[in-house]
Amino acid sequence: MTEVDRYRPDDKRAVDALYKRVFGIDSAEANHLRWEWQYRHNPHRPADGPLIWLAREGTTIIGQYATMPVKVSVQGREIDAAWGMDVMVAPERQRQGLGEVLFRTWDRNVGASLGLGLSESSYRLFQKMRWPDLGPVPCLVKPLTRRALRRPGWSITANRLVSALTLPWIRLVARTRPLQGEVRVIRNFDESFTRLWDRVAPQFAFAVRRDAAYLNWKYIQAPHVRYTVAALERDGVVAGYIVYRHLQEARGRVTIVVDWLTGPDDHTGLLTLLRWVDREARAVDSDKIRAFAMHAGYRKLLRQSGYFTVKSTMEFVAKINAVELTPSFYKSADAWHITLGDSDQDR
Ligand SMILES: CC(C)(COP(=O)(O)OP(=O)(O)OC[C@H]1O[C@@H](n2cnc3c(N)ncnc32)[C@H](O)[C@@H]1OP(=O)(O)O)[C@@H](O)C(=O)NCCC(=O)NCCS
Known about the structure:
By secondary structure, the protein is α+β, with helices and mostly antiparallel strands. Helix content is 32%, strand content 30%. Strands 1, 2, 3, 4, 5, 8, 14 and 15 form an eight-stranded mixed β-sheet that branches. Strands 7-9-10-11-12-6-13 form a seven-stranded mixed β-sheet. Strand 10 and strand 11 (252-262) form a beta hairpin. Helix 1 packs across helix 2 and helix 8 (267-283) packs across helix 9 (296-304). The two termini are 35 Å apart. Coenzyme A (COA) is lined by residues 22, 87-89, 94-100, 118-122, 124-125, 128.
């Protein structure tokens, strides 16, 4: 007889062992490093412990759904929600309906159940259960050097030819442009960022509440990644922020824009922050900059800044339970603000 209930501290060892079996040793080690921060230090963690459900059979744990509680603004109304993250069923028990039981338990207990960057198996299960599908979240890339266009499948000669032919265009796209407003690197989000959120939140059909407590937890205190945060001020008032980091990938050096917030109608605000990131990326010799953006207005500004849309596999599903919505709400996600920083996508 399978029972589903909440995680208790003495479950840790058994859950770790299951995690290793399902996701492998490397993922389990990485999960270890994040666990306390991700589940215990989340500012929206319920008083009775992390929002994790376990499937038990006697004393054996055979499945888990670990989630990240957040507040979400839906057409100006704030509701409790949770990103579904580490869901797993013991290999020998998969495809027997247990995943569905865990998904339904999570969904029954939250104001909105959200999924981002899904594995093939969980995406299929969301589809089978008819979760509204809004993805994938568009991916945009800005080339900064000729190396940005290299393809592993092409010969050296072909790569060189493409590099030579596209050089004038890369130079044009990647040219430096002036900043408008004061941009500075910050090490802490103070309450002026909560005020920024309160001002701009009603302009989104959907966005996770980006207040100071959430932002500090997500981008300053994260133990597994180091972010840089730049803030934009105008006349002493915070008008926006942008979070980014640099990393080495197999095909070159990349700067990733992880998250940002400006008024969606404040065009110079986001353009200025993007120009700041351009300079930072050039300073560390990045070949390209990558961002994920759902909001159509932000995407337009990214394209205006020299970004191009490329294929994305970052699937996004969202089911809102706490407020009545018409089916048309899910028809377009153009006014939804979703980035790579949402959920635990950037690990
Ligand atoms: C995702 C997972 C939790 C689903 O649990 P489950 O108990 O197998 O799910 P259920 O039996 O309730 O549902 C089965 C449905 O899930 C989907 N599914 C499950 N495994 C799948 C797979 N390997 N490939 C494609 N679809 C799969 C299908 O829609 C399937 O329906 P079907 O059997 O009629 O084709 C489980 O497959 C798992 O642990 N996967 C590995 C870990 C993982 O990828 N986690 C998600 C991280 S985002």
